[in-house]
Amino acid sequence: MRLLNSDTLELKEFTERDVPEYAILSHTWQDGEVSFQDMQNGNAKEKPGWQKIENFAKVARECGYAWLWVDTCSIDKSSSAELSEAINSMYRWYGNAVFCCAYLCDVSEQGFYEELDSRASDWDRGFDYAFRHSRWFTRGWTLQELIAPAKLDFYVSGKEGWSSLGSKESLQEKLNSITGIPKGVLVGKHHHRSFSVAQRMSWASRRETTRTEDMAYCLLGLFEVNMPLLYGEGERAFTRLQEEIIRVSDDQSIFAWTSLSKEEDARGLLARSPAEFRNAHESDRD
């Protein structure tokens, strides 16, 4: 596992048994993110994404954390073996982090005031509008990044670096309203395993990924299964995910999906995507 030193911003590789305490970043990708290759060839500071890393490091230092993990530059994505291992380990890595910083790149302190003036009669309504419409809540990968960490705080761009909006514990009511995830799961009182497969699928039903296959791969940790990555397989990835879940679980709710097309002829037993579980948030195991 490669971690960034929060002071020097240099990468260091650790064996699994020697990994120190670390903070982890949750974010949505933008143009010009810093890659592992950028860190190696010295181009990192020239990329627009470097400021994101600097701001995260500043937050980590202020919180007393010496090591950081950032998905864009801590994984060598040119290695298919390393990428596969990382994606299959991602839920565990977020769960093992002592602190997760969730950065909402499309929300800012100034944005709150603008919404306050144009759409809301008070601060709470302005905050609620800006917060719940963040792209972060629409992406597939950020689902596990919200659930897995014990400690997660939300940050937005401020006048001097990033400003904290609060923790997922303090914001649990809003998060439940936005995501449909039970508050007990959000704050760690209830394990996600205590909810049916269909219910967990419903949490991902309104989320998207850039690549079709990632809509399956981003759910591996939530269902505690592992499988190889085969980019190019399209919707077959989600079929394989369901087959793996069936192999390790007798939860019949996996069949509690509803086709998105009303004009479709008969088809197989398995869903095409999490979107077909949109109405399964109350489906029990049997």
TrEMBL record:
Pfam families: DUF8212, HET
DUF8212 domain residues: 236-273
Coiled coil: none
Top-level division of the source organism's lineage: Eukaryota
Endpoints of the signal sequence: none
Region (Disordered): 267-286
Domain Heterokaryon incompatibility: start-end pairs: 22-145
Entry-linked PANTHER family: HET DOMAIN-CONTAINING PROTEIN
Name listed for the protein in its UniProt record: HET-domain-containing protein
Source species: Rhizodiscina lignyota
